[in-house]
Amino acid sequence: MKILFPIGTLYPSQQGGPSNTVYWLAKALVKAGIEVTCVTTDILTQGVPRDKWLSTDYGEVIYCSTRHAMFAVRMMWESFKKLFHCDAVHLTSVFNTGSLFMAFCSTLVGKPLVWSPRGEFDKEALIYSFHKKKWVLWLVKRVFAKKVFFHATSPMEWFDIKNVMGDKVQIIEIPNYMELPEKRCTKSSERYILFIGRIHPIKAVDNLIRAIGLSKKFTASGFSLWIAGNDKNEYADSLKAMAESLNITHNVKFIGHVEGLEKQELYAGAHFTLMPSHTENFGNVVIESLAQGTPVIASTGTPWKKLEEKKAGFWCGNEPAELSRQIERAIEMNEEEYKQYRRNAFQLATQEYNIYENIHIWIEAYEKLINSAK
What we know:
It contains 15 helices and 14 strands. α7 packs across α13 and α11 crosses α14 (335-352). The radius of gyration is 21 Å and the shape is globular. It is an alpha/beta fold. The strands form 3 sheets. It has an 8-stranded mixed sheet with strand order 3-4-2-1-5-6-7-8, sandwiched between helices. The protein has a 3-stranded parallel sheet with strand order 9-10-11, sandwiched between helices. Strands 12-13-14 form a 3-stranded parallel sheet, sandwiched between helices. It has helices at 17-31, 73-83, 97-108, 123-126, 130-143, 155-165, 205-214, 216-219, 234-245, 260-269, 284-291, 306-309, 320-331, 335-352, 355-372; strands at 2-6, 35-41, 54-56, 59-64, 88-92, 113-116, 149-152, 170-173, 192-196, 224-228, 252-256, 273-275, 296-299, 313-316.
């Protein structure tokens, strides 16, 4: 079996979650004996050879030079050439010129196609630049809705895809799996709860800061909120101004972008990780945190009810008052209960989200897709 992954950015790029998710998937497929080809761009891939086919442990890969992310002509050309030598194509993102191009090409030559929108069909996500997105949605629904398999990472995303593409759309539901990092034993000298990710309004970090401002218990506890992510944008500036206006700058710390070992140690040292997003189709941050034994507070806009079921965290509304209550609940846990939550967190990650333990699910899905096209 030969699978082709055309994707805008790929590890070592950290442009977005799919850069890692597809990398982990490709790596596990190769380990399972599947032939994988990845065609991507050179965006944020310092040190990686460009415009040259590389043999890696995640397949045959080429990082194509590009000046404009939405018009990666060389990437599209290299993907098209590889199209005739694969059994199935797996695309990421609907609102990407390269993905649309390969969707047309794949259906024209009769190649089975899986399309992972990665949360792009969520109504909260569609708000941004909707005047442009509506024409792409119209095109995709008219041309591809009945011809491809869309990939949902959760029941919530399954509903979003069905809602946008119509009742006759074909959907496979498989959660994001990941290559779990080595568990760190870091014990921080500072006590902090952690937000890590893209600093964007959809992540509701403003609600989180308001929640801190509402909690006298938190501000008097010696805990602080650490916010990790690129903070060089207007939204981040507004968050800093908000913290100052609420007089909680001593309780809120912006630490900038982190990755690699530093990121894993940051997770390991946190008391809890928070994901207060208005919406998430999945949220790799949750698994990354659980893999370090750190419980998570996730909003009900995310598909993480399982945190409550497994006693590995809390699942709650993302209104500031509710977040404030749950944060207080987290910092007031007794030592034994907290240790049990950390054990449960690690167990949940290792038992249910390890890519190598679950790769057979993807292989069976691709086999079914390929056989149905014959």
